[in-house]
Write a structure and sequence with these properties.
alpha+beta, 3-stranded antiparallel beta sheet, two-stranded parallel sheet, elongated
Length: 149
């Protein structure tokens, strides 16, 4: 049971760190992470240059078991599981629903851009001129580097 929880914790922690909000959230501060990028399905790994483990899903268990240092204590694992249960991260959707969610998310981003709102930080999009012509960039530059042509 402990190994299963550890694997779930590692996968979720990797997902959270990839999403970028890991370090900004006080809920997760202090948890130790081991980044592992996992490709699933028919994904193809070609010339991946990374400081972290980049593996196919069928190699994930072997990659995790290769680590000999204990990164999560039992209390860390319990804390991560509690966070997952509180946030209901266990939702699984079929492919059709997943694709529809992607289209809806993309439409939401396009609507924000059309309204002149930066989809990354909520700032205002302003017209700028650069080496390759005009474009819209976030008014919060250089903190936010979102651009669109």
């Amino acid at each position: 049971m402990g190994t299963v929880l550890f694997i779930i914790a590692v996968i979720v922690i990797v997902c959270l760190s990839i999403l970028g909000w890991w370090y900004d959230s006080p809920t997760y501060k202090g948890l130790k992470i081991v980044p592992i990028v996992v490709f699933t399905g028919s994904a193809v790994l070609k010339d991946v240059d990374s400081n972290y483990d980049v593996v196919y899903d069928f190699n994930l268990i072997d990659t995790i078991q290769a680590y000999r240092t204990i990164y999560l204590s039992d209390s860390d694992v319990k804390r991560v599981v509690d966070i997952l249960l509180r946030n209901d991260v266990s939702e699984f959707v079929d492919n059709k629903t997943h694709v529809n969610n992607i289209y809806a998310y993309r439409a939401e981003i396009d609507n924000k851009i059309a309204s002149g709102i930066c989809p990354k930080c909520g700032g205002t999009l302003v017209e700028r001129t650069g080496r390759y012509g005009s474009f819209y960039g976030c008014s919060n530059y250089p903190k936010c580097k979102f651009t669109v042509h």
